[in-house]
Amino acid sequence: MLSGLIQTPSTETKTLEMSQGPTFLFPRSLSLWAGALVVLPVFLQAPWVRVHPFSSCLFTAILLTTGIVAVQLGNTSWKQSGTLLVGFSGSWLAGSLFWGWLRMHPVLHIPVEAIALPLAIGGLNSRWKLSCSFYLASLLGTAITDITMALTGVMSFWPEVVNAASNEAPHLLNAAAKLVLQPTSLLILVSAAGLVLWLAKQFWTQAARPSEQQEAWSVAAAVLSTTILIDALFLVLSLSVPSLSGLI
């Protein structure tokens, strides 16, 4: 009896810790998962869509189906990861369409990327809010990047770079990247980076407050934070090793 009385609190404590553990750990892994999905197109979709854009578009169906199945049949972790995949599938389809057939027309980039915008806005308060927050944050990051490119004058190089021969494209991309280092362009670039960091900070602040949208804010913050890292890496590679940038 005495030993049972002594062990009971310990057992309850362990049970409480086990039940609290996933609540504490999963949002962090969710953010990492969201960040990883931002990186994936750079290393997988970019080279794939140049070789066979149609199959890249078809892969959207696999992503979407996998996400829906995970939501329907998985545990909590799988459900939320599946929801992220559904949001990612929208970004993947838009990227495949643009880079596969419309890459010569940079003015169409944002309209194509926004192909699922009405659905994403409408679903923010639904069971698919993680999908929507991922897609919307990704679209926001892309929009800021494109606007920055337009303001710095880099956008004018875009059609020439993506249509150039393989031996000429690295030099053109490097010349475009060097344009960003001019004082006015650099000021615009730093301001845009500051805006993204500020937005990410605001999202992280919202994610720290208990609410029904807490995980959605966490996903959006992770997506924006990763976006600026990818953009910075792209600029560094364009200046140093253009052939590894993923654009050409």
> What spatial form do the alpha-carbon principal axes imply?
globular
Strand percent estimate: under 5%
- Specify Rg, calculated over alpha carbons: 21 Å
Characterize the biggest β-sheet.
none
Sequence stretches where pLDDT stays below 50 over 5 or more residues: 1-27
What is the structural class?
mainly alpha
Query: What count of structural domains?
Result: 1
The percent of residues in helical segments reads over 70%
Order of helices and strands: HHHHHHHHHH
Extended strand count:
0
Mean pLDDT: 88
Number of helices: 10
Ends: how far apart? Answer: 73 Å
Strand and helix map with partners:
Blueprint (H helix, E strand, L loop, with lengths): L1 H50 L1 H21 L2 H27 L6 H5 L3 H6 L6 H24 L5 H6 L5 H11 L3 H25 L6 H27 L8
Supply the key terms.
248 residues, mainly alpha, 0% strand, globular, disordered N terminus
Can you give a write-up of this model?
The chain has 248 residues and is mostly helical. The protein is globular. It has one domain.
Structure summary:
With 248 residues, the chain is mainly alpha-helical. Helices cover 81% and strands 0% of the residues. It has one domain (28-244).
